[in-house]
Amino acid sequence: GYDVALVRKVLTGIGMILPAMIMPVFGAIMDAKIAIALLCVLMGLATFNSAGALTNHLDIAPRHAGKLQALTNTVATIPGMVSVTITGFILHHFESWELVWILCSVMMTIGALPFLVFGKGKTMFV
Description:
By secondary structure, this protein is mainly alpha-helical. The protein is built from five helices and no strands. Helix 1 runs antiparallel to helix 2, helix 1 (4-22) packs antiparallel against helix 5 (97-118) and helix 4 (65-94) packs antiparallel against helix 5 (97-118).
């Protein structure tokens, strides 16, 4: 079969990098139906990450996957908490949804890169 790490990285790329590439387009869309359709596509693509980096905890530490998931999910929640304030700041000072979507795109890319570069599909901790 295929290398586990390669499969996880491809799925993470589909789930995070492809949506990040599409997000900046939202700033230029003026038709609500098109925006909703594109958002559905983005959310569909994002589900691929569930079989990518999000599942990797089971690969690298089967007995400690729950603890790793809790730790990484806690860290991953921070951008979601901070983003509301940052979005408000951007909209108040720059009145730019384009900038908001570009920032979302950059954050998704930054979130994906460590796994794409350093991710392993082998058991590291027993």
